[in-house]
Amino acid sequence: FPTSDTLVKPPNSNQSASSLSNRTPKRPRKRRTNFPMEKLMEQYLEQSAQAEDNFYRMEEQRLQAEDRRREAEHARELHMLQMLGQMFSSISSTRPSSPVTPPKTAPAVPSSVFSSASPSCARVFERYYSLGSTLKRGMDDDDNMLSLVKNIVPALTSKKHKGQDGRIGIIGGCQDYTGAPYFAAISALKVGADLSHVFCTKDAATVIKSYSPELIVHPVLDSPNAVEEIEKWLPRLHGLVVGPGLGREDLLLKTAKEVIEKCKARDIPIVIDADGLWLVTQQPSVIQGYQKGILTPNFMEFTRLYEALHHEPMDSSDHQRSVMQLSVAMGNLTLVLKGEHDLITDGSKVISCNIEGSGRRCGGQGDLLSGSMGVLAHWAHTVYQMAKNPSLVAAFGACSLTRQCNSQAFQQHGRSTTTSDMIQEIGSAFKKLFES
Ligand SMILES: NC(=O)C1=CN([C@@H]2O[C@H](COP(=O)(O)OP(=O)(O)OC[C@H]3O[C@@H](n4cnc5c(N)ncnc54)[C@H](O)[C@@H]3O)[C@@H](O)[C@H]2O)[C@@H](O)CC1
Ligand SMILES: Nc1ncnc2c1ncn2[C@@H]1O[C@H](COP(=O)(O)OP(=O)(O)OP(=O)(O)O)[C@@H](O)[C@H]1O
């Protein structure tokens, strides 16, 4: 709208409409244009439309400039990745094979990998992937993985609408456990998802809602038509985390299983943690071979799962080997064995996340991990659509973030660090790792 300065004053603006009409009795009156108020309105509207046009023209130019800037930034990043890739390929062709060799050699990545990402990015990932086992990884490897994570972080622009950066669902929350689904859901939001839904039992819902008005809480998990109730929301979800605080009641596990099946049919990334892993231990086929599935067991959960699939005790002296074996048995599913070093594998290579955490192991930090992984999995599968395994990038990102949060929270709170303290650190830890 024009300002008072730009507003055009009507001719004889100090005269009233009636005195004007009295001065021109003989001339036939042109309807509308001769009537000063109408003319004034016309001019006003015309100017207003012009101002609006100008505004949109300028806004368009601003957005175009912003696009160009982002493209240049992206090109710089790709160039950097390309250089890293060249460095890596020369290292891989000169260095002797690692003394700790996985049971299988890492396969070369097919050329279709990364066909949806830019070609140079694809080349870097290919080279990185074909390095084989990364059991003896150095700082450069971590940096390269972090670059791949940085690449999936969506830009914050005014063009987006709510929901575009991720709508994540958490299946979990029952009478005994209300903290775990809350931790997972709020972590998803703080990492950058736009909306975070919790599907929990009726008696857990009010409690979870009272922790945070940010979460959308559905008290449906123990309702007779739970699966239909949850299924209604699936078309709107980009990622699902199954298990934090789910409990082990048969009915809830059955619902979780059916929801997983529905999600698979929709090709939604699924992270399975905590009691969701209990379900997988009973019925591995529920997720076996699903390429957008990620399992995040702690040591106990891993041991149970390993023994259920291999029918023999695990060799606990060689975690890398065990983790690869389990992933292969699960149909090359992405697996994260949490611990002093988080071991991430899809059965063909092991990536270790060693970012320094702290000596503090408070309950709930695994929920922070799974919640943030839900968002990163969505971003990774969006950016690296045709890549062999974008889940590896998501898993590495979430492990790095959790450990960085743990370290930062510990610096302030020491022994009294809790998961809530870690959640407070998500913003700055994310920025430090992925936006610097
Ligand atoms: N505030 C909350 O509501 C919380 C709820 N939680 C929920 O509690 C439920 C049960 O989870 P649990 O983790 O207790 O599962 P389990 O009942 O399988 O217990 C695993 C046990 O193994 C132990 N353990 C873990 N890592 C180990 C290692 N490396 N070596 C030896 N022992 C190890 C743990 O202390 C725990 O006692 C899940 O639904 C989970 O999500 C947890 O997430 C913690 C926080
Ligand atoms: N010994 C360790 N040293 C450093 N970091 C660790 C260690 N153990 C676990 N972590 C970090 O904590 C994260 C969560 O692992 P943890 O073993 O606490 O999961 P969890 O038992 O499933 O958690 P929850 O209490 O939520 O159920 C890991 O991904 C890792 O980043």
From TrEMBL:
<feature type="binding site">
    <location>
        <begin position="298"/>
        <end position="304"/>
    </location>
    <ligand>
        <name>(6S)-NADPHX</name>
    </ligand>
</feature>
<dbReference type="InterPro" id="IPR000631">
    <property type="entry name" value="CARKD"/>
</dbReference>
<feature type="compositionally biased region" description="Basic residues">
    <location>
        <begin position="24"/>
        <end position="33"/>
    </location>
</feature>
<dbReference type="GO" id="GO:0110051">
    <property type="term" value="P:metabolite repair"/>
</dbReference>
<comment type="function">
    <text>Catalyzes the dehydration of the S-form of NAD(P)HX at the expense of ATP, which is converted to ADP. Together with NAD(P)HX epimerase, which catalyzes the epimerization of the S- and R-forms, the enzyme allows the repair of both epimers of NAD(P)HX, a damaged form of NAD(P)H that is a result of enzymatic or heat-dependent hydration.</text>
</comment>
<keyword id="KW-0175">Coiled coil</keyword>
<feature type="binding site">
    <location>
        <begin position="338"/>
        <end position="342"/>
    </location>
    <ligand>
        <name>ATP</name>
    </ligand>
</feature>
<dbReference type="GO" id="GO:0005524">
    <property type="term" value="F:ATP binding"/>
</dbReference>
<feature type="compositionally biased region" description="Polar residues">
    <location>
        <begin position="6"/>
        <end position="21"/>
    </location>
</feature>
<feature type="domain" description="YjeF C-terminal">
    <location>
        <begin position="145"/>
        <end position="433"/>
    </location>
</feature>
<feature type="region of interest" description="Disordered">
    <location>
        <begin position="91"/>
        <end position="112"/>
    </location>
</feature>
<feature type="binding site">
    <location>
        <position position="367"/>
    </location>
    <ligand>
        <name>(6S)-NADPHX</name>
    </ligand>
</feature>
<keyword id="KW-0547">Nucleotide-binding</keyword>
<keyword id="KW-0520">NAD</keyword>
<keyword id="KW-0521">NADP</keyword>
<keyword id="KW-0597">Phosphoprotein</keyword>
<feature type="region of interest" description="Disordered">
    <location>
        <begin position="6"/>
        <end position="34"/>
    </location>
</feature>
<feature type="binding site">
    <location>
        <position position="245"/>
    </location>
    <ligand>
        <name>(6S)-NADPHX</name>
    </ligand>
</feature>
<keyword id="KW-0456">Lyase</keyword>
<feature type="coiled-coil region">
    <location>
        <begin position="41"/>
        <end position="78"/>
    </location>
</feature>
<dbReference type="GO" id="GO:0047453">
    <property type="term" value="F:ATP-dependent NAD(P)H-hydrate dehydratase activity"/>
</dbReference>
<comment type="similarity">
    <text>Belongs to the NnrD/CARKD family.</text>
</comment>
<dbReference type="InterPro" id="IPR029056">
    <property type="entry name" value="Ribokinase-like"/>
</dbReference>
<protein>
    <recommendedName>
        <fullName>ATP-dependent (S)-NAD(P)H-hydrate dehydratase</fullName>
        <ecNumber>4.2.1.93</ecNumber>
    </recommendedName>
</protein>
<keyword id="KW-0732">Signal</keyword>
<dbReference type="GO" id="GO:0046496">
    <property type="term" value="P:nicotinamide nucleotide metabolic process"/>
</dbReference>
<keyword id="KW-0067">ATP-binding</keyword>
<feature type="binding site">
    <location>
        <begin position="357"/>
        <end position="366"/>
    </location>
    <ligand>
        <name>ATP</name>
    </ligand>
</feature>
<dbReference type="Pfam" id="PF01256">
    <property type="entry name" value="Carb_kinase"/>
</dbReference>
